[in-house]
Amino acid sequence: MNAQNKQAYVFPKFNARRSPVPVRRYNLPKDFVFGASTSAYQIEGAIDPGTTGRGRSIWEDYFAARPHMDNGEVACDHYNRMKEDVAMIKRMGHKVYRFSVSWPRIMPDGTGAVNEQGLKFYSDLVDELLESGIEPYLTLYHWDLPSAMEKLGGWTSRAVAAHFADFAEVVLRRLGDRVKKWCTFNEPEVIVAGYIGDGLAPGLSNPKLRVIVAHNLMVAHGLAVKRIRSLDTAERLDVGIVVNLVPVEPATKSATVAARKMWQRNYAIYLDGIFHGKYSQVVLDEAAATGAVITDEDMALISQPLDYLGINWYLRLVVNRQGRVVKLPGAEETLMGWEICPAALSRMLLSMNKEYKLPPIYITENGAALADTVSDDGVHDNRRMLYTHEHLSAIELAIAGGVDMRGYFAWSLMDNLEWSLGYSKTFGMVHVDRKTMVRTVKDSGMWYSAMIKANKRAEANKRAKSAR
Ligand code: GBH
Fold it and tell me: Residue 274: pLDDT above 90?
């Protein structure tokens, strides 16, 4: 493709004084960062081994068996448009950018040989970000397991956990001089979902694997953290993990126990392992029933201190006494059927802060699939603007209540492959035309830019005042 016939991105006009959602400063700690998140398979495209040297991932296997679905062959063509995308992020005023590296792009077989072309792509991305004044937040694993690793048993296998730590080392040796923020896994709960259900790769539909996979992922996390720290002798790097948390709230008082159990089983399992060094009784019972092997040594590995915790926030659930999910009257949902409930985010953060000794927290993903109106003068998505404002206000409340919040990343930078749902559900603050690949910053993206500027100005004023 010729660089000249790529019109990179469009910035429509945005008048903050006419905005339906306030552009205001939030009460945030000094150095609170704003940016957006993406993941490798959802945006890169360029999965052809012949031209890219990339190996096969479980997503190619998944889509090959489901030919009626959209797949990641093209995605956002980010692999070929990386520089333009970084220029766009810079122009939007983001200070940080969260992305993931693709294991099969870097190590086609998951272990052994390294694909220099793949590693160089990420090295160039990091250079481009740093030259643009944007800090990279790197995630080692966002769901694209090399097929060769799945053949070894995937995340049910301890050998794969060990290979993951070796992969972490390869990436660290190349990028550790420039990337300071490291994350092992994106959303262990969803990785588990690919083994117990069929909506995500590898789609094994085996409910008995829940604790086996969850625990093995935690071991892999622990091994990678240990490896990174052993190489980071100057203690320069920040290492963390990203979990997706969905608080489960009881519909009535009598549903309290059912709600608590569901939260412990699906979500708190990761927090309990990492911050308490032990799982709750519900999880231990399930482990015993399904043959998951959990040792004290594992728990020591899993509970190593972290520099930060990333939380991906999308929704809350409400359950009845039987533990069944119920919808409260008046609840507003996105196109995913997920309830918009920012108040539950504040509540969850405040209660977690009491229950665990938490490191600094980032909201590493937050966003919504909503209907956008594409027209000649831009892409209109007032509800997404409001959604973002509501969630920033919820974070502000948590901060006022003493939670140590350090940043916010919108999901997503741009419309991308929503996994098995294809390109039909759009979460981006930037619209991507599926035919031309032209990026157009949506109204929400323009609002977000204006908001970031307003908060930076407020911070600068505050600093100037205290210096006087
Ligand atoms: C994130 O996962 C991913 O990190 C990202 O790749 C993805 O594109 C994005 O969110 C949008 O989906 O209502 O009980 O069925 C989201 C994880 C897992 C959150 C399923 C909501 C549904 C719970 N999601 N969960 S339920």
Answer: yes
